[in-house]
Specification:
Number of strands: 2
Helix content: 55-70%
Shape: globular
Order of helices and strands: EHHEHHHH
Number of helices: 6
Radius of gyration: 18 Å
Length: 173
């Protein structure tokens, strides 16, 4: 058990929701993040208990997974606009990665050393996939899932950030 910034499947006391309010219905995604940030800003703490079990149904295919993470990234800048204290350095890593990886690959034609970030990502993906998955099939799909999560979120975040800056209020899908 430990206190964390946010959890994916929260359970709130009614008194907390009366104090901080309900989910922000303007947000298509990340409503739980935004509500957790508001709770923490009012002094509440979020306890993550690994003994609790939930059933989570994953997306049926890689296209739907991409869309899910793209939307997570797309709406995160709007959450930050509403709750600036929720910003953490790690929220920006996928968008930085999404920006720098194509540049790195493009510059690799100038010098092979620019290929190192891409090779490093591939090696890490392989190591993690092999270590966390049991079957060859799952190991293989993990190699596809990691870039979908990172690039989907990263691209969505970049577009969402530009949209928030442009409209100074709302994210357009």
């Amino acid at each position: 058990k430990q206190y964390v910034d946010t959890v994916p499947f929260p359970i709130y006391k009614r008194s907390v929701l009366k104090d901080v309010g309900l989910y922000d219905e303007e947000l298509v995604r990340n409503q739980d993040d935004e509500l957790n940030y508001r709770c923490r800003s009012k002094g509440y703490r979020i306890l993550m208990d690994p003994d609790l079990e939930t059933i989570y149904y994953v997306r049926e295919n890689l296209k739907d997974l991409w869309h899910q993470y793209f939307q997570y990234g797309l709406y995160k800048p709007l959450v930050f606009k509403k709750v600036p204290q929720g910003r953490r350095w790690y929220h920006f890593v996928p968008s930085l990665f999404t920006t720098l990886m194509p540049i790195s690959l493009g510059l690799s034609f100038v010098h092979w050393g620019f290929l190192l970030p891409s090779l490093g990502y591939l090696v890490l993906s392989i190591i993690i996939s092999v270590s966390i998955q049991q079957t060859f099939r799952k190991k293989f799909f993990s190699l596809l899932v990691f870039p979908i999560l990172h690039f989907g979120y990263g691209l969505g975040f970049i577009i969402g950030l530009l949209s928030v800056i442009k409209s100074n209020n709302k994210v357009q899908e």
